[in-house]
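Here is one chain, start to finish.
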Amino acid sequence: MRQVAQNYRTGELAVLDVPPPACRPGGVLVRTTYSLISTGTEMMKVSEARLSLLGKARARPDQVRKLVDSVAQQGPLATYQKAMNRLDSYTPLGYSLCGVVVEVGDGVTDIAVGDVVAAAGNEFALHAELNWVPVNLCVPVPDGIAPEHAAFATVGAIAMQGVRRGEVQLGETACVIGLGLVGQLVVRLLVAAGVRVVGVDTVPARCRMAEKAGAIACAGPDPDGVAVISEALAASTAGLGADHVFLAAGGSSNGPVELAARLARDRARVVDIGKTRLDLPWNDYYEKELDVRFSRSYGPGRYDDRYELDGIDYPAGYVRWTERRNLACFLDLIASDGVEVATLVSGIRGIGEAASLYEELRTGELDGVGFLLEYPQAAVEPSRPEVARPAPSAAAPAPRPAPRVSGRDVRLGFIGAGNYATSMLLPQLARQEGVELAAVATTRSLSAINAQRKFGFGTARTDAAAVLDDPAIDAVFVVTRHHSHADLVCRALERGKAVFVEKPLALTLDQVDQVVETIERTGNDRLMVGFNRRFAPLVVDLQQRLGRVDGPVSARYLVSAGRLAPSSWYLDEGLEGSRFAGEGGHFVDLLSAVTGQPPVEVHAVQAPAATGGDLHATIRFADDSVGIISYVTGGHARFPKETLDVSGGGRSARLDNFTRATVWTPSGKDVKRVLTGQDKGQRAMLLRFVEAVRGGGPMPVTWDSLVLTTRATIAVGTSVTTGERVRP
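Its structure:
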């Protein structure tokens, strides 16, 4: 299928041929009829992508701060490579469309195949021939509405949420500053609500358009224009001024927010809908005691994964107008002629002309507020849902698969290609001789295409079964979100593949048992978990210099994990497990490697979540060595993330964030540093894994050790809950 995308590093905008998305539970697959280009939000993104690296940095100071913190942790080279990897990727465009449902996922009951729907979301309602959309981000289109008009529903919901935030009442007067697409819709909604409206915009044609829609007066922000608006407000409010000012403008000028204070009455409401500069002139806003409000996108539910992805609705008694109800309400207004959008359609182009259309909009060759992309209505085949995994067979376990790689490249398939895979794993594998990156499958179409373009995968798909069922693939890499790991590992093992899974192997003991049962039933133990730290050059060197230690050792592992963004999927403990369950296996495994012993007992305590949830786990190993893992989140972002101290037998060693290793022995102190940045062992780990697959030799770490490390990691959570010591 075709999809519009832009390379954020170069600014290139293209219509790409990408794999169609699969239909997943909780949503529907929509064949797009029309998608709407947002001449405000999208063109801002398109223009930003064309800036130089310095210009991008100035436009996104929040990302610059993250890069500075990353340099302190990982070094300049690794940070640069990671940043360029993210920049040099195609990103999607679009967030408002109308189309026809071609497939319905499990759990969806109020939408059927063949329904015409309006869909929303900058990750779902994209400029693409097919889109998977969660059920709470799409609504059926009432009969009689033209699909090109229904495509305005998302932007209409944005405008509607802004009007709701203003709490307008009959007979009041409002000023709309910025008469682009959102501003024009705000004007129409206010007029429909019985509010008198004035408008301000630098483009005279937009002012005339708003007046035709019912505004009593519109003019530019120049002195003459402001005088016209002020006079109209004085006449309609007996000199009081606007009851509400809606900021629907964008850009870096502080003019809109200053003008708002001038036109507003005492104690008026100022509602920010667009992305404009907001350096509030304190005296002006204080003297009038203006109420400044923000309107967040389409309405309540936005940016809440439980609402948008899990389909959990808010009760109408508590939240009357959610984003889905706003979408439906706007469509109802169109259907009843309460709001007119036909005159907002400035042009319609085919999907194949998208790149030229964006360029004409960027350069100003085209003027207008509402441009639509039209899609051919020939059937586009959706990807088929994955076939359910067969029930375990009662047949006797097959022998361990014999080596199949001889005289040719090792063929690898990837399920998942997120930031970690594309920055830490795939660059290493792409440089290895004797490796063929055969296939990649990701949930999102562009992710698969980006991985294929950067690393040379033979095929790119959106269904995991395409990788699992390919008989030519020797080893499968599972680099997806945590909750899916155990199931995908079992499915790959059952198909006779060698498997590399990024940590964790499993989140629950039941999942661990599922993996063990699969290995024992199939005889396929060709499993590796991405516990890379034991392979780090400084760790290997530290162990060699520390030498043999008689008797047990004591180790302290301080992990300054830092805080996560509130939107991080790591925080979805109900689905993805605790943060330590996802990452802690790294630290348990490294302690096992340093002590040379398996863990036999775990005891852990955790501070209340309100204070950061810092966790401290004591792990006893088979020879009575003891390791203490302190996993803390409240430290400074530039404090070294990982520090490991080991003592025993008159010897001591310290590992400082994989950049320096110090050993104290009877012969003295020995320090080694890495000047090129961190090396946490990914390269060495991958080399070992590929060689094991190629030659049929043992995996770099035995599967029973991987399972025991996983059990010990899960035991940390159990001990926190019960307060007791737990044996893995």
